[in-house]
Amino acid sequence: MRYFHFCKLPGRVMGIRLLRFTSVVIIVLLLVAGALTALLPNIKDDKMPNLRREPKTQSQSALDSFTLIMQTYNRTDLLLKLLNHYQAIPHLHKVIVVWNNVGEKIPEEMWNSLGPHPVPVVFKVQTVNHMRNRLQNFPELETKDLALHMISKAVLMMDDDTLVSAHDLAFAFSVWQQFPEQIVGFVPRKHISTPSGVYTYGSFELQNPGFGNGDLYSMVLIGAAFFHSGYLEDFQKQPEAVHALIDETQNCDDIAMNFLVAKNTGKSSGVFVKPVDIRNLEKDTNSGYSGMWHRAEHLLQRSYCVNKLVNIYDGMPLKYSNIMISQFGFPNYANHKNKM
Amino acid sequence: MRYFHFCKLPGRVMGIRLLRFTSVVIIVLLLVAGALTALLPNIKDDKMPNLRREPKTQSQSALDSFTLIMQTYNRTDLLLKLLNHYQAIPHLHKVIVVWNNVGEKIPEEMWNSLGPHPVPVVFKVQTVNHMRNRLQNFPELETKDLALHMISKAVLMMDDDTLVSAHDLAFAFSVWQQFPEQIVGFVPRKHISTPSGVYTYGSFELQNPGFGNGDLYSMVLIGAAFFHSGYLEDFQKQPEAVHALIDETQNCDDIAMNFLVAKNTGKSSGVFVKPVDIRNLEKDTNSGYSGMWHRAEHLLQRSYCVNKLVNIYDGMPLKYSNIMISQFGFPNYANHKNKM
Hints:
- Two copies of one chain form a homodimer.
- Helix content of chain A is about 30%, strand content about 20%.
- The longest helix of chain A is centred in the N-terminal third of the chain and has 29 residues, at about 10-40.
- In chain A, a hairpin with a 5-residue loop joins β4 and β5.
- The radius of gyration of chain A is 27 Å and the shape is elongated.
- In chain A, α6 (about 240-250) runs antiparallel to α8.
- In chain A, the strands form four sheets. An eight-stranded mixed β-sheet of chain A has the order 3-2-1-6-12-8-13-15, with helices on both faces.
- The first copy, chain A, has eight helices and 15 strands.
- By secondary structure, chain A is of the alpha/beta class.
- The interface between A and B is large, with 41 and 40 residues.
């Protein structure tokens, strides 16, 4: 705004000139406003590849939004079905699809032709079909604020065959905000010590490590969980033996992440949020491909990984927890009414 | 252990003297050990009034044990039934019974005649029958460690008509250890803002303060909850108007404590642990007395208290939460099995 200096003129003349002046200013401002409105960008962006336009949530605090990372192999039909669901989750900032279909074109044209989409989706083409591709510290995760400070954000990592309801995700995200240094997710697992000192990996069928008083978990799987994006950077800095183990087994990246988080925090690596509506869609795929966990050696491999990681890290950092978090009064308040 | 200096003697002589010496030392140690075993204190203590003997848990970290404070009025039959239950809860250090039966003798003789008891129980005779008697900073709460440092401990506060199972209490205590600055308990309540700015107090029947997505609570009642004993000291330091409000209504001490904790932490005052087995025994009493909450004006009084406290503190410090904590896999692992 420019400041105008007014000459000292007699009162009445001054008054009329002021009136004329302010009228002109108002008219000019209205014209400018009209021009700006006409110049607002058109929403349809179908000519822009990859939708790199920043969404309106840029001013949102970095802790208030998350990036979905979904790795996909040989189940593009499930991927697209899930993207239609996940793209609309509250507080989602961006989607990164880790494209493990080496040599196959990403469905970018189709994606764009079916725009607009609520958030940007980036397809990251991979050169090898490796499990740990999804644990790269993707540049797309970094956001800089207006002062050009780097802001880390939450990651939601989902397997490409898992559907979790919007309510579950919104709630679990709010729980992650209260436990930002832990993996907050929907799938708990445990390790068991045996007298021989050899560990075994498993789920609820496995014995309690405690005294018969309920169950315990010591890991939360990252295939349906929130965690701090800084852990991806940490993961890249882990000993080469860890990366080699994951490459050798094409498995256990999630166990390795739990070791990393437990070592980092000295607490249990995960916080389990009990899902109300979680669905495995693998039966619905047309590809016939049904996921790594169906391999005969899958669970034995994971026990193997636990023991290898204990060797690599020279100790067992995982800690047990029996905290199970649910959403108060959801779906209805019957879930907390006292029977007193 | 004394260190013996050995003269430098020729080898063989040295060897025999050493052998004799070590044999003597071993025999002496065995005799001493035998003597100590014989001198171990006898468990039966039925001649000691009030059982002020420190329990074996004195070396236990102060965060690993709690003191039960139970205020009682006109329901001695329930009190005694509950004491038989609560005295055996794991990690209980001591019981303080706040005896509001003014002019009536405490059942000390009967209590002692039915000893021994697992923990010390102290009867604190009150001179007036006041609701906030239970919020005194009782000297019995203080424990000094070997270096004479003051150690604060957890308080479990229970109404004298409420039975909570040992499993629930053991679990909730472990949860309190993870949230030591909050009130961790079994009874959630909420306040609601209305457009007029006047607050209302209530439970799940009251509208959601949110957007229809589940329920919220902003208080955890202290009549069945763990909290840090330091808050009792804090409570005594609150403005006189707070104490006067509780005396005027003979109600709302728990609401006042939630205000205090919320102001202190800037977070939600409570963490709700969903009880598996909680029972109200008030129908079982022979006294015919059925508790303050049956008074017609009880809930209106509590809304009144919320508004008065907002005036006194010049603001509403209570914060909402929707975190509900349950024990993973208890009573059985069906409570967390995925239906995927």
